[in-house]
Write a structure and sequence with these properties.
Layout (H helix, E strand, L loop, with lengths): L2 H21 L8 H4 L19 H6 L2
Length: 62
Amino acid sequence: MSRDAVHAYEDDDMAARARRARFGSLPEPVRVEDLIEERPAVAPYPARFAYDPDEWLVRYCA
């Protein structure tokens, strides 16, 4: 075996070890609860529930 072949083999072996170290195992599973984010679709509108249906009685009948 020539020196170039030995160096090429060592380089391939080091690359294979580096790949195995980086990609050798699967990542930890992610829980379904961690995949879901709940938030309101629109910002709350404060005047939406401010209407008082009995207010007209005070204004017009008193």
